[in-house]
Amino acid sequence: MCRWLAYTGEPLQPSTLILDAKHSVVAMSLNSPLGAEPVNGDGFGFGWYPSDAGAGATPSTFRSIEPAWNDENLREISRAVRSPLFFTHVRAAGGPPIQQTNCHPFRYENWLFMHNGVISHFGLTKRELTFAVDPSLYTHIRGTTDSEVLFHLALTLGLADDPIKAVGDAIRMVEAAGHKAGVAFPMQGTVAVSDGATLWAFRYSSQGQSRTLFHSADIPTLREMYPDVERLSTFGDHAQVVVSEPLNDLPGAFLEVPESTVAVLDPSGYHHEAFLAA
Questions:
Q1: The domain containing residue 62 runs over which residues?
Q2: Which helix (H) or strand (E) holds 12?
Q3: Is 156 helix (H, G, I), strand (E, B) or coil?
Q4: In what order do the strands lie in the sheet with 240-243?
Q5: pLDDT at position 75, please?
Q6: Cα separation, 112 vs 21, whole angstroms
Q7: SS3 sequence, 104-153?
Q8: How many domains are contained in the chain?
């Protein structure tokens, strides 16, 4: 499938995580030990909120069909900007064509969304699910992926009012359509969504065997655990990372998000909530 990373906290040069970490997202694009596919070279995307923008700001995006490890523009942009909240995603295409509009993250107004996983046998449910998108949002679907349809279903079902409920309702709709079409396990994956202030990271699959997902422990605790690791001084006290695979080998630095769980991260810290648990 894919690999992704999301950051929230004090404004940071994104290249710190996208390029420079020991097991950075670009490194994952070449070698993903915990991924369904070891190589994720079918394009990438980078979305970020400006460091000087207020609440409700529209994020910027850069998406390309180039492999992430081979794109000079990604290196230039990720080193040139600073952002308090950004997403990046490397893609392993599972069926939909390799084109820019199929690269994550997807954007609508102040929202960013990305997904690692699949709506199983999407061709059997694509018409029903796509037509369930609100007509006012339908024209914003530019690509052909199941992930973009899932995003617009969540927008249709009230993402702006209650993100956890809206993503849950969208997944339940996917499962209902899939079961009606004879698909045993319709939904698989991890999802990140943000309004620019809060980051929600979901781990869920119909089969209970979701893609891996981790988030960092709080920085002050890590500094106490590893006082000699100079790299930790790069991050502010509120820095938090959610990622498909840990960025380093430091024991305790990354915590696994359990199955059927949403991790909610904002300036106050993080907490977990049960999500679509049986």
A1: 2-274
A2: strand 2-12
A3: helix
A4: 60-64, 44-49, 83-91, 2-12, 240-243, 214-216, 254-256
A5: 93
A6: 23
A7: CCEEECCEEEEEEEEECCHHHHHHHHHHCCCHHHHCCCCCCCHHHHHHHH
A8: 1
Whole-angstrom CA distances from 230 to 1, 9, 46, 226 are 34, 19, 27, 9
pLDDT in tens, 157-212: 999 999 999 999 999 999 999 999 999 999 999 999 999 999 999 999 999 999 99
Spatial separation of the C-alpha atoms in residues 29 and 141, rounded to whole Å? 26
Whole-angstrom distance, CA of residue 194 vs CA of residue 37? 26
Query: Cβ distance 22 to 253 under 8 Å?
Result: no
pLDDT of residue 220 exceeding 60 = yes
What is the reported pLDDT for 30? 73
The three-state secondary structure class of 4 is: strand
From CA 277, how far away is CA 172, in angstroms rounded? 12
Strand duo 60-64 + 83-91: pairing? unpaired
The arithmetic mean of pLDDT across residues 14-33, rounded, is 81
pLDDT of 96: 76
| CATH code where residue 167 lies | 3.60.20.10
Q: Structure pTM?
A: 0.94
Confidence of residue 229 (pLDDT cuts 50, 70, 90): very high
Q: Give me 119's structure tokens.
A: 């709506």
